[in-house]
Amino acid sequence: MDTFRPFTFFAVVLLLAQRATAEHVGRTNILGAIVDNSTRFGKEQKVAMEMAIKDVNEKTGPRCGLRLITSQSKPYQTALAASEPINKQEVQAILLPQTWEEASLVAEIGNQAKIPILSIADSTPLWATRRWPFLLQASPDRNAQMKAVAAIVASWEWHQVTVIYEDIDSFRSGITPHLSDALREVGVEIGNLVALSPFDSNSSLSTQLERLKGEQCRVFLVHLSLPLAENLFVKAKEMEMMDKDYVWITTDSVTSLVHSLNSSTISSMQGTVGVKSYYIYPKKYPHFQNFHARFRKNFSLENPEEENHEPGTFAFQAYDAVRTVCLAMRESSNGGQQLLDKIVRIVKFTDDGKVAPAKIFQIVNVFGKSYNELGFWSDDARDGIKKGFSKTTDERAVYNASMGSLGKVIWPGGPWETPRGWTPPTDANPLRIGVPTKSTFTQYVKVEHDPLTNKTSYEGYAINLFRATVDSLPFSLPYNLTPFSGSYDDIVEQIYLKKFDAVVGDVAIVSKRYKHAEFTHPYTESGLVMIVPARTQNSNRALLFMKPFTTAMWCLIGAISIYNGFVVWLIERKHCPELKSSAFNQTGVLLCSSFTTLFSLHGGKLHSNLSRMATVVWLFVALVLTQTYVANLASILTVQRLEPTVADVDSLRNSNAMVGYCRGSFVRNYLMEVLNFHPNNINSYNSPVEYADALRSQKIAAAFLEAPLAKLFLAKYCKEFIAAGPTFKVGGFGFVFPRGSPLLPDVTKALLNVSESGRLRELEDRMIASEKCVDGESVVDMSSLSPSSFWVLFILTGGTSTISLLVYVVWHKRFGHRTAWRLVLAVMRRWWHRKKTFSRRVSDVDTSTNFSNTSNSRTQV
Questions:
Q1: Residue 413 CA to chain centroid, in angstroms?
Q2: Cβ(460)–Cβ(531) under 8 Å?
Q3: pLDDT tens by residue, 585-600
Q4: Distance of alpha carbon 432 from alpha carbon 373, whole angstroms
Q5: Predicted TM-score of the model (pTM)
Q6: What are the start-end ranges of the E strands in 305-351?
Q7: What's the CA angle centered on 205, arms 204 and 206, to 5 degrees?
Q8: Chain centroid to CA 378: how far?
C-alpha cells in the first residue's frame, strides 16, 4: 500500500492541476484563427498573432487565448476543421484566412453559431455582410488598388493592358468589375484576360506566355498568389519577356510579400512596378515601437528556412486584428451579439491612425536585391485629400496625377526611358491593312489588279495620305495592303474578327461601327450634303436694272439728289429767270435739276460760289455712282447665276421623290432612320457618272453624298448641279484600328502632324484640281451694293451742300452780300490788331523782367 502512495499523491496533484487549469481555461476567452503554415502569408500571420496574444496577456493577465486551425488549402476541408470548435462554442470569435473561398464557407458556419467572424480576405463583397450579419471585414478593401493600377497605366499613356489573374474566386472578384471600371475611367482597354490555374504545369505556363509574346501589347498586370507569380516571372525571364519595352505591374497579393522572396526570384522580377497596401503604425502606440525587432527574432526561431525575416503588411494586419478582438473580449462579459457590437465599435477605426485608409497604397519598384519605395497613391476623400501620387502622406503632401512625379523608375531591361508598352509590327509579321475596292469615287481609293503581273496597285487620296502618315511615325511600320470587296460595314467588322489589323480608305466614322473598331481623327470635313440639278436664276428679270444697288441705296441717292437740287435752287433763284416763275413751275425745275445732275445749269451760269461748290462735289459723287452702277449691272448681265431646283429635304419627302446614295455606305440607313425617306424611294449608285445621268434623266430628284465626295462631284459638274439645303452633321473619313489598339494614338498624332504641315491640304488640292470645272465656278455671288460702300461720298456731298446752305442763310440773308464781306474784313482786322497788341505786351514784359534781373545782379556784386 505504501508502495503506491507516491503515485497516489502524484495523481491527486495532477487532478488538482487539471481542475485549476480547467477553471482557468473557463475564464479565458479563446480566439480561433485559420492559418496556412505552408505559405509565407500564413507564417507571418501565425507569429504576429502569437505576439498579439502575449502582449495583451502581459498587460491584462491571462484572459485571452489563441487556437490555431490549420488550413488544408482546400476550402471544404478547412471549413470542416473549423466547424468543430465553432459548434462546440470553444472559441468566442474566428479570424478568417486570406482567401475568400475559405472565408465564405466558415462565415456560414459562424453565422449559424452566432460567433463573430473577422475576415482579412483579399476582398469581402458588399453583399456578404448583409447575408452573414456576424461577418466583419477586418482589413481595408484591396479592390480599391485597381484605381491605383489604372492611375499608373494612365500616367505613362499606355492604352491597353493584358491582365494575368488566378482562376479562383478571390482573384476573379478583384478583376471584375473593379479593374474594368477603373481602366475605363482613364480610357484604357483590357486587351487580354489570361486566367492561370494554380495547378498549371510549366509547359502550360510557357504556352500561355508564348502566345502573349506574339501579341503587340507589352503591358501586363499580374494578379496572382505569390507561388504562382514566382513561377510566372521565372518563366517570363527565361523567355526574354523581362527585357526592354515590357511592363510588369503587380497587385498587393504579390507586392506585399516581395520582401520575402529569395534572390533568384527577385532577379527575375527586375523592373517590376507594384501596388502595395500601406499600414501606418505611429510611434505613440507602445506595442508597435519594437514590433519589427521582436517579430524578426520570433520569426527566425520558428521559420529558420526563410531567408528574410522582415514583417510584411499582412503581419501588421494580423497583429492588430488579434489585439483588437482580445480587447473587445476582455471588456465583454458575454459572447454573441454583445461581443460583435463591441468588436464593431473597436474595429471601425478610422481616425486613430492605427490602420491606413483603404484607399492609400504604396508604389514600389523592384530593383537590385529588394525594391525601392517610390511614393504613394491616394484616393481618400477625407479631409479634402485629392486623388493622385505623392512622395509622402502627411499634411504637406503634394498630389500629382502622373506617377512621373515620384521620380525615376527602373523598367525591365534597365532603360530609364519610359517603355512604349507595345511592339510595332515587324517585317516578319507586317500589319494587315484592308482596302475597300467598291469606292464610288476612285479619287479617294482606286484598286486595280493586273492579271498579267498578278499585282494589285493601290492609289488615291486616302492611300497617299496614309503613306504620308506612316512616314511621319517615329518608328518604322511595315504593312501589307489587302483588297476587300464587301460593304464598308463588313470591312470594319473584319477588324473585330481579327482578319485585318487596320482599314484604310474612304470609311466614314459612324457610331454603330465603334462596337467593332475605333477611328483616328477625321482627315476630311464632316457632313452629308444634298446635291440637286441647278437652273439659271431668272426671277424678276424686269427689275434687273435695280439689282446693282440695294433699295436703301436707291432711296439715299434720290434723297441726296433732291437735297442738293434744293440747295442750288435756293442759292441761284434770284439770279436765274427760270427760277422766278410760279411755285408749280419752280417745283418742276427743282426736281428736274435734281436728277439731271447738271441741273440744266452749266458751271458758267451759276452765279454763286456756294452753289458752284455744292455742284462740283455732287458731280464728282454722281460720276463715281454712275460708273459703279454700270460695272455692277454688266457683271449681273454677263455672269450666269444658278439656283437649286429643290429647296429642302421636306419638299423631297412630301413629293415622294426618288433619291440616291453611294452603294455600300451608311447613308441608306441615315436616309431612312433620320430623314424618314421610304426605302422604296432610295436608289444606290456606283460612280459619279451614274449620279449625273440619274439626275439629268430625273430618275432621282437629289443625291446624298458625304461632304468630301460632294466637293469632288461639284468640282466636275459645277454647271449642272448644286448643293441645296443644310449640311447634315455626320462623321468624316478616318483610318480604322481595333479597339484599344496601341497603334491608334501614334497614328492619330502622325496624321495631325501631316495636317499641320500642310501636306494634307496639298494632297486634297491636287485631287480637287484634277476635277476642276473648266468653265469656272457654279455659283457667283454678285451682291447688290449698299450705302455702306459709299457712306464717305454721301457725307462729303451732303456736308458740302449743308455748309453752302448755312453760309447762304446765315450770312447772305441776314447781312446782305456786301455787309457780309465787310463784317468778315472787320473781324479779320480786329483779330490781327489784338494779336499785334498781345505780342507787343508780351515783349515789353520780357524786356522789363530782364532789366530787373540785371539790376539785381549788379547790386549783389
A1: 32
A2: no
A3: 556 655 665 555 444 4
A4: 43
A5: 0.64
A6: none
A7: 90
A8: 22
Type of residue found at 90: E
Burial class (CB in 10 A: 0-12, 13-18, 19+), 634: exposed
403, 151 Cβ separation under 8 angstroms: yes
Residue that has been written with the C-alpha cell 494589285 in this structure: 456
Rounded distance, CA 548 to CA 284, Å?
Answer: 93
What is the rounded distance in angstroms from the CA atom of residue 226 to the CA atom of residue 255?
Answer: 9
Verify cis geometry, omega within 30 degrees of 0, for the bond prior to 227. no
Per-residue model confidence (pLDDT) at position 835: 56
* Residue 561, all three cell numbers: 439728289
In whole angstroms, what is the distance from residue 213 CA to residue 218 CA? 8
Confidence of residue 94 (pLDDT cuts 50, 70, 90): confident
pLDDT tens digits, one per residue of 239-266: 999 988 899 999 988 998 888 888 888 9
Q: Which residue has the cell 523581362?
A: 242
Q: Which of the four pLDDT bands, split at 50, 70 and 90, describes residue 503? A: very high
- Measured in residues, the chain has a length of 861
**Residue 92 · residue 67 · CB < 8 Å:** no
- Picking from 317, 341, 319, the residue whose alpha carbon sits closest to that of residue 56 is 319
Which pLDDT score is estimated for 221? 95
**Strands 736-737 vs 29-35: parallel, antiparallel or unpaired:** unpaired
pLDDT tens track for 743-763 = 888 899 999 999 999 999 898
Residue 124 CA to residue 135 CA, distance in Å, equals 10
DSSP 176: T
Q: What are phi and psi for residue 66, nearest 5 degrees?
A: -130, 130
Which residues of 641-735 form beta strands (DSSP E)? 642-644, 659-662, 682-685, 702-706, 721-728
Q: At what angle do helices 145-155 and 178-185 cross, to 10 degrees?
A: 30
Q: Which pLDDT score is estimated for 650?
A: 84
Strands (DSSP E) contained in 581-676 are 642-644, 659-662
> What is the H or E stretch that residue 219 is in?
strand 219-223
The count of other CB atoms within 10 Å of the CB of residue 283 is: 7
Per-residue confidence band for 141, with pLDDT thresholds at 50, 70 and 90: low
According to DSSP, the residues that pair with 363 across neighbouring strands are 275, 375
Lowest pLDDT segment from 139-143, 619-623, 791-795: 139-143
Phi and psi (nearest 5°) for 729? Answer: -75, 110
How big is the CA angle at 296 (ends 290 and 49), to the nearest 5 degrees?
A: 80
Three-class DSSP category at 2 = helix
pLDDT band at 121 (very low <50, low <70, confident <90, very high): low
